[in-house]
Amino acid sequence: MTVESLSFLEAILASAVSAGTIYLIASVGECITERAGVINLGLEGIMAMGAITSFILTLAYGHLAAILGAALVGAVFGLLHAFLSVSLRLNQIVVGLAITWLGLGLSGFMGAPEVARELLKSINPAVPAFLAELKQAPRLPELKIEPLNSLPVLGRVLFSQNILVHAGIITALILWFILTRTRWGLSLRSVGENPALADTAGVNVFAVRYLAVILGSSLAGVAGAYLFIGYQPFWVEDLTRSRGFIAVSLVILSSWSPLRAIAAAYLFGGVETLQFRIPLRGFGAETPQLIMMLPYVITIVTLILISLASRGRLPAPAALGKPYSREE
Amino acid sequence: MFRRSLLSALRLPVKVERRPEVTPRFSIAVTLGMLLLAFLASGAIFQLLGFSALHIYRSFFTTLLSPIMLEEVFRRSAPIILSAIGLCYSYRMGFWNIGAEGQLYMGMIAATGVVVLYSAGVGPGDALLLPTVVAASMLAGGAWSLIPAALKTKFRANEIITTLMLNYTAILLADYLVHGAWKDPAGYGFAQTVQFPAGARISLPGFPDAVAYLALTGAVTVLTFIVFRYTVFGFESRIVGLNIFASRYAGLRINSIILRGVLISGALAGLAGLIVVSGLIGRLRPGASPGYGYHAIIASLLGGLYPPAVFFSSILFGMLLTSGDLLQASIQMPKSGVEIIMAMIFLATIVAEFVKRHRLRLAGGVRGGGAT
Question: CB–CB of A109 and B337 under 8 A?
């Protein structure tokens, strides 16, 4: 392999990991939520809220505040979802769509220059407010991990990325371990498979579901923060472009396992970077719309392939989407 | 011990029971009450973000006060009514079609394709132009909706995901065409197609467009009401939505019923696209729809999938969009402001479902935390 093609491979893999991290953080969280029996279609709107929060908080107080703030905003939206879907036992699909709507509307409104300016002014008056009108924030710095970053391929793909890329992988590993190897994980899975039985065994179904939805939502908030400060630090309307919904479908592709979610997310990160790579080779340079369809079309094709491979019997949690009520 | 106390903290302090029966009058009262709450809540959000809530409420009601405004309200409601009535066919069967927006875009694309051919001197003559664009838009919208329906029935692919993905695909396709092959050569380089000729527009001679649209959408609403209430198809589609397993045992041909219902949804959304592209903006350009297909989702749920109610809740969304334009012009409120009100209405709609079916009773002396 020549040096040139090696560095081309490196570049592609590095950008696949970089783009895939958006999906990874969000879909790992959704894995946990769904394993507890709740489907959260609010991911799209929560990601958008995470992104706008990180935009304004980065300008006001820096990156750390931005990430924590995005997680907190995500958790608040998760609390709302859990109240409606777990306590009031409303249809999870409709609840999720409403949450998405709220997140997209609110984030679009907050991102408008005149509103963003006022928000920044009221959050931290010491920072010049016009900064918010520029729609940009400093990107998360690359973290060069010595001496691993001088490894061939891996050095550039994994060890010269920003901290949220690593946090994404580590979160996936930790959550996989908790889910499959601990008592907590067992309780959570039992709530998703057979809540009545879990309830009889002394597991608090409501509390587990609340925590699972809130955890998944706050990770979606962080995914939104990563999308903005880690990937594309320029605010546009509809920044998320359905990535939250793609993350939900990646949970199916990874058959509800946080470990397989890593592979699925990077795969789709690769698809996303094709959008920028193919026009460089001359095809669709002027009208990139056909190539921009790729993630959407490939998501649909993936769903078909999964269905064919599993012969229509997906390993979904048995109680997924079903509200639980104690017959009192 | 920790578990139990956490549990009682998460429980409501009052006892919630199922309400034995829900009368229509009660149900309407709850919906209206929740709508009021939604308006108050969004007013609070705007006030927090630095916009006067009172100003926003006032502009919402001024849309009803002048004939010109009212005309605009009805024009903008038309695509929402058609899409929302169409969505009722899908939702009654439990098919979560989120794809009206994409189907609407395909309708716009097909109608524009006919007009592009027509202005190049090919295709239908003057007399056949309107029937051709109507057929093209409905066929295109219907065909686009058949993709997720087929994927659902054949592969059990989640229709929420597939319809959403197809929305983006259709929007990008429209973008591609107006930037490329269909760009108007006399359009000073703007990404837009040629203007729709008068013969390709839905109109009633001697009346403003708003009246023609009201007649058309009213007719579709009444027809749908009849289909739902008095036809075998209407009955079957309801049974499929209520219990898919039971209907399979009853020998219903579920796949065919789903395909037919979703096809009608898509065709009506496609027709909505024709109204947008021929009447509201007169040509295809990027971002031609501000999300009429999405607004229709809330409108159909707010109307409880009952066609006359869906008609009126769609007009509410027409009012919101019109007042949104007013507010943008008068106090520079960002366009997505009305999206917040819509989200609140959406939340209010689903909470209303809960309120209708339950009633509260103070839990006197029910087990407390100390018992364990």
Answer: yes
B353 contact residues in A (CB cutoff 8 A): 90-91
Query: Would you place residue B365 in the very low, low, confident or very high pLDDT band (cuts 50, 70, 90)?
Result: very low
ipTM entry: 0.93
Measure the CA angle with vertex A133, ends A130 and A136; round to 5°.
110
Q: Which of A101, A299, A308 sits opposite B346 (nearest CB)?
A: A101
Q: Supply the range of the domain harboring residue B82.
A: 74-314
Is residue B254 a part of any domain in this protein?
yes
Residue B324 within any structural domain of the chain: no
Least CB–CB distance from A299: residue in B12, B165, B346: B165
Check: CB of residue A136 under 8 Å from CB of residue A125.
no
| CA nearest neighbour of B358 among A89, A324, A321 | A89
Q: Which residues of A touch B56 (CB under 8 A)?
A: none
Q: Which of A102, A237, A289 sits opposite B176 (nearest CB)?
A: A289
Q: Does residue B220 surpass a pLDDT of 60? A: yes
Q: Do the Cβ atoms of B134 and B109 come closer than 8 Å?
A: no
Residues 328-347 of B with CB under 8 A from A: 332, 334-337, 339-340, 342-344, 346-347
**A-to-B residue pairs, Cβ atoms closer than 8 angstroms:** 146
ω before B286 within 30° of 0 (cis)?
A: no
CA–CA gap between residue B52 and residue B345 (Å, rounded): 19
Report the number of distinct structural domains present in chain B. Answer: 1
Nearest CA in chain A to B340: A105
CA atoms of B232 and A139, how far apart (whole Å): 60
DSSP-assigned letter for residue A129: G
Q: What are phi and psi of A324, to 5 degrees?
A: -105, 135
d(CA B129, CA B266): 21
Backbone angles phi, psi at A234, to 5 degrees: -135, 120
The answer to whether residue B48 sits within a structural domain is no
pLDDT in tens, B170-213: 999 999 999 988 998 888 888 999 999 999 999 999 999 999 99
Asked if the C-beta of A188 comes within 8 angstroms of chain B's C-beta atoms, the answer is no
| A37 contacts A192 by C-beta, under 8 angstroms | yes
d(CA A39, CA A255): 14
pLDDT digits (tens, 9 = 90+) for A225-261: 999 999 999 999 899 999 999 999 999 999 999 999 9
- Would an 8 Å CB–CB cutoff place B149 in contact with chain A? no
Which is it for strands B14-18 and B358-362: parallel, antiparallel or unpaired?
A: antiparallel
Neighboring chain B residues of A115 at a CB cutoff of 8 Å: 49-50, 334
Chain B residues inside the 8 Å CB shell of A203: 3
- Structural domains in chain A, sorted by start: 7-142+156-310 (1.10.3470)
Residue B2 CB coordination number (10 Å): 8
